[in-house]
Amino acid sequence: MAAHHTWSDRSRERLATCDPRLISLMNATLKASPLDLVIIEGHRSHERQAELLAAGKSKLGPGRSKHNASPSKAVDVAILRDGKVAWTDRDAWLQFGGLVKGVAATMGLTIRWGGDWDGDFDAAEHGFWDGPHFELVED
Ligand SMILES: [Zn+2]
Prior knowledge:
The protein is an alpha+beta fold. The protein is built from 4 helices and 5 strands; from the N terminus they run ααβαββαββ. Helix 2 (20-32) crosses helix 4. Zinc ion (ZN) binds next to strand 2.
């Protein structure tokens, strides 16, 4: 049975930097999710994008990530268990990815999930499995 989830203030602030379609998608996902969620990032500055590239945490240079758009065309959202991001819970992430895609479909939104990139969950240690990442396909 789904609990009654709400966004934290920080999640709400981060989500507010996103495209209205992503805001609607995340609000609907939060209602449907059996787990609590946290918004990790919405809009990302070119400066921060350059830092992530330099640190090997992104493959994209400044201006090339959907996070760099303003409002952001990408959102990073994580599943929580007992207040902590459930990074190692493979099944929960796969279910969550499916949930977000399903909710998007009911809204007529075409999205791309970072969890579908670069192989599978077990590649997470190698850096580019991106389960928290959802982006709009169309501008
Ligand atoms: Zn992302």
